[in-house]
Amino acid sequence: MTLRSTAGMAMILVLGLGGCAGLKTGRDRIVKTAPSCVDQTVQIYFEAESAEVTKEGRAVITAAAAQGRPCKVASVDVLGLADSVGGPEANLELSKRRAQSVTAALTAAGLPAGEFKVQAAGQAGATTAGGQAKPLRRRVDVVLHLSPT
After folding, report:
1. Rounded to whole angstroms, how far apart are CA atoms 60 and 78?
2. What is the pLDDT of residue 36?
């Protein structure tokens, strides 16, 4: 056997084995990867002066619930926020309604039962020390505390 034919056979072997790397075995099709059950944080944004979950917000909620479905949900922290437009009492009430609507949407999306800790901050923290409004305060922050089942 010559060096040239040995090198050629080695190349064919390498190429042939490389093609097999992309093939799934029967085991790969049957055995599923364990879910990633780590805590996750999502933010749901709202239109001004609204507590109605938007289409985009529902998509985020659906994705979060789907990720939490195969896991044990220890607890869910839901914090409603508001910007500094309007009065403090009205903004506190708005942030409560936002938190409640996200909690209802999470439950409707099939998130497994867990203890919900629902809070509202209103406009607290909505402005900087210099009096500037902080952007993106019309939201609800959700933390899903997940663990493997």
Report:
1. 14
2. 78
Query: Closest Cα partner for 68 from 37, 24, 93?
Result: 37
Q: Phi and psi dihedrals of 104, rounded to 5?
A: -65, -40
Task: Report the alpha-carbon distance of residue 38 to residue 116 in Å, rounded.
Answer: 17
Q: Which two tokens stand for residue 110?
A: 């099939």
Q: Which amino acid is at 57?
A: G
> Residues near 9 by Cβ (< 8 Å), separated by ≥ 6?
none
Residue 57 contacts residue 44 (beta carbons within 8 Å): yes
Q: CB-hemisphere CA count at 13 Å for 64?
A: 26
> What are the pLDDT digits (tens) for 78-94?
999 999 998 999 999 99
Backbone φ/ψ region at 42: left (φ over 0), alpha (ψ -120 to 50), beta: beta
> For residue 148, what are the β-bridge partners?
71
Quickly list DSSP for 27-95.
HHHHSPPPP----EEEEEE--TT--SPPHHHHHHHHHHHHHHTTEEEEEEEEEEE--SSS-HHHHHHHH
Looking at residue 101, what is its pLDDT?
97
Whether 126 and 53 have beta carbons less than 8 Å apart is answered as: no
